[in-house]
User: Fold this.
Amino acid sequence: MRFMFRSLIVAAAALAAAGPALADGEVNVYSHRHYDTDRALYDRFAERTGITVNVLQGSADELIGRLSREGAASPADVLMTVDAGRLVRAQAMGLLRPAASDALRANVPAHLRDPGGHWYGLTRRARVIVYHPERVSPAELSTYADLTQPRWEGRILIRSSSNIYNQSLLASIIAHEGEAAAAAWAAGVVANMARTPQGNDRDQMKAVVAGEGDLAIVNTYYVGRLLNSGDEYEREVGAQVRVFFPNQEDRGTHVNVSGAGVTASAKNHDNAVKLLEFLTGAEAQERFSAANYEYPVNPAVSPSPLLQSWGAFAADDLPLNRLGELNADAVRIFDRAGWR
Ligand SMILES: [Fe+2]
Assistant:
């Protein structure tokens, strides 16, 4: 998820070259979504509407910084991130403008969008437990909180606390259980880690299969990406792990969204709203699910067969703007817990 400097320069040059011709038939997207499948969707949108999608890819922090520096002169019409927290931050900085659309309100349930319309979820991603079935029985698993029990000592794999997915998971624990419980959870997981956090979500699953630990906390779509990898070892790793949805007896599994908002500086406002409507509509939602293994936000669209094979699950319906509001508290708690 690192900022892709080369592609940013190339895309920035393309945007600059496009210059004044941007007024009609185009929409300019600053995106942190890092998936090949998105390009196919933009091409489909262009086919359907005649509106070309120009994409500048980078990390959310870089893109938000860029939007802020560019101000009203920014060519960006849409900001797209892989976490609600960063959208909330962009909104707080005044970088997003409310987009009102009956289609968007129908496509995206209320808890998966900003109440004021500054941003909308595009896809849902569940942060689940994956485990090795020869070393863990699903009957032993229950909640995120249970992972602090002494029987998990030396068995848990999870990435660094600098990662926004973990920050949002902890923010959800703060929202539901309070700061003291969240601090105890972070300290308890640190005490049970199989190793100092390193690598991404896929690396945690590889370490489970390699026997470094017995379970990992990861986003569901990475299981799908392993299963469909071009690399034989990755497919093997994906086939060996099992998915468990925590907290099914109470608040539900923590869910975040990748999402997008129309920028305050948008010159192609109507095209931007059309793009968001397209991305939350049935065709795009099916494709996000089938090709990138993400859950639809649109309740009228079913998850792909692979996702259905993991089972239906109850999702935490905490309003996602809370994740952004509690992000700084989560970072502070992680630091105090010594979670690298
Ligand atoms: Fe990701």
